[in-house]
Amino acid sequence: MTSSFVYAAARTPFGRFGGALAEVRPDDLAAVALQGVLAKTPQLDPERIQDVVWGNANGAGEDNRNVGRMAVLLAGLPTSVPATTVNRLCGSSLDAAMTASRQVESGDADVVVAGGVESMTRAPWVLPKPSRAYPAGNVTAVSTTLGWRLVNERMPAEWTVSLGEANEQLADRFGIGRERQDEFAALSHRRADEAWTAGFYDDLVVPVPGAELTRDESIRAGSTAGKLAGLKASFRSDGTITAGNASPLNDGASALVIGSEAAADTIGVAPLARIAGRGVHALAPQEFGFAPVEAADKALARAGIRWDDVAAVELNEAFAVQSLACLDAWKVDPAIVNAKGGAIAIGHPLGASGARILGTLAHRLRESGDRWGVAAICIGVGQALAVVLENQA
């Protein structure tokens, strides 16, 4: 078994639902991210890419089911470059990166591109297809943007609560109140704004042609806990979760070049980080927000390190409450978590978020010189993924 490495990372800016990227198809967004990451490895002959593994949570519309292959074709890569699309909902592009790393480590490939895309704006409405022609009754169009749809009646009701209600239950379980959630959310916006202003994202984010978007569109630089306190609860009349302390709906794409150590000459740049450990975990569907706890612990164990060794954490902020529950369980210093902003500010285009946090983590380690970092993401229906990176700078 060889080791696998992250060599390059790139992403588009993340647009708001109905915002600056609303007119851009998801397959075009994916192609932009793919072209963007390959521009960081200009010596890499695209013919040497042995696979593309792409994440996408919807796939029902313009994603065209295998949006990874669509991205390869639209990006102008040789038709000989294969591609597949994986779906683990919010974790899809982190799953893609994990799959790519396994291909490299097993010897099946030396160079693989991984990434993901989501246009939540352009996710289609769907109709259930009748089993017989010309049904007499009416049917309802269902949005594929987020959450459960066309639920199987055999599913227990407690499993199929909304994502928001599931996290209100986490707030109850761990006693995490509204004020703490709002403070966490405001910090996410502040950190993201500071990171953009300082130029951290200049080397990570590539523009989308035709879209006037130079930074992540959901960031609110002036956000404070006091301002967020004025928002109404979204899921319970007396609840704690609002539009301000949960991730928004977004559009965007992200990509990574992953390869073996021997592929450095082929790729033409030195690796950023070694993929040192992977973890996957599942529990009851309504408890999905807490699943990263065990996923990260498993990844650390496989890397042979402990939380005391970790200097940087990228945890996808689906909701402030679930992020806080994870941090409390890990007992990590909050200062090392999402130091460049998180999904509450940056955005959470489902299929793109996993590769975003992994690429951000690799660049954070390069900037700081620290050795170990963890990227983790919760996933609807009770799952989570985590990856440990070892800095190579």
Which features would summarize this protein structure in a list?
393 residues, alpha+beta, Peroxisomal Thiolase, Chain A, domain 1, 10-stranded mixed β-sheet, 11 helices, 12 strands, globular
CATH superfamily caption of the domain at 4-121 and 248-391: Thiolase/Chalcone synthase
Can you tell me the overall shape? globular
What is the CATH topology descriptor of the domain at 4-121 and 248-391? Peroxisomal Thiolase, Chain A, domain 1
Number of H/I helices: 11
H and E string: EEHEHEHEEEHHHEHEHEHHHEE
Per CATH, the class of the domain at 4-121 and 248-391 reads: Alpha Beta
Describe the structure.
The chain is built from 11 helices and 12 strands. It is an alpha+beta fold. The protein has a domain at 4-121 and 248-391: Peroxisomal Thiolase, Chain A, domain 1. Strands 1, 2, 3, 4, 5, 8, 9, 10, 11 and 12 form a 10-stranded mixed sheet that branches. The chain has a two-stranded antiparallel sheet with strand order 6-7. The chain is globular.
How would you summarize what this structure contains?
The protein has 393 residues and is α+β, with helices and mostly antiparallel strands. Strands 1, 2, 3, 4, 5, 8, 9, 10, 11 and 12 form a 10-stranded mixed sheet that branches.
How would you summarize the topology of this molecule?
Blueprint: E1 4-11, E2 15-16, H1 26-38, E3 51-55, H2 67-74, E4 83-86, H3 92-106, E5 111-119, E6 125-126, E7 142-143, H4 163-174, H5 178-198, H6 225-228, E8 250-260, H7 264-267, E9 273-282, H8 292-303, E10 310-315, H9 320-330, H10 343-346, H11 353-368, E11 372-379, E12 383-391
Parallel strand pairs: 3-4, 3-5, 10-11
Antiparallel strand pairs: 1-8, 1-9, 2-8, 5-8, 6-7, 9-12, 11-12
Helix pairs in contact: 1-2, 3-11
